[in-house]
């Protein structure tokens, strides 16, 4: 199945899945994760959700990686409300899931929702990382909210986090695009 998915032959992978299952074989979570990833990459995220729901009734339940993949796919497809519903399911939500959802909120210009989720993740004792701040700074810059990005940049430095190349590149790009090249 991985070979089919890597070569963008996800429909062939699904047919192979159906054939193998009809022969009585049980597939593991790695195989299902590969299949879900392939389905999402071809823009069929709703089909991936259906597969997740079918797996919930199997002995091997969907894992966090599978949910991460689907949430990320939903956000990239602009289906952030569906991603939020999936994110709120009672399972061990991962940091990656939260930031996929934050990125999705920025994609559909729901900046306040992104900021609320970021703040709630920080308050839930999440130790912020540079990559976490980069997602927020990038979202603010893309939504022409460079002042908020600069404030977050200062906050991360105050917390002892060292900005990386992505942080600086994102801020410089945001400042230039907002006509504030003198700040660079």
Automatic annotation (TrEMBL):
Coiled coil: none annotated. Keywords: Repeat. PROSITE patterns: PPR. The keyword Repeat applies. Transmembrane segments: none annotated. The keyword Repeat applies. PPR repeats lie at residues 28-62, 63-97, 129-163. InterPro entries: PPR_P_subfamily (IPR050872), PPR_rpt (IPR002885), TPR-like_helical_dom_sf (IPR011990). Gene3D superfamilies: Tetratricopeptide repeat domain (1.25.40.10). Belongs to the PPR family. P subfamily. This is Pentatricopeptide repeat-containing protein. It comes from Stylosanthes scabra.
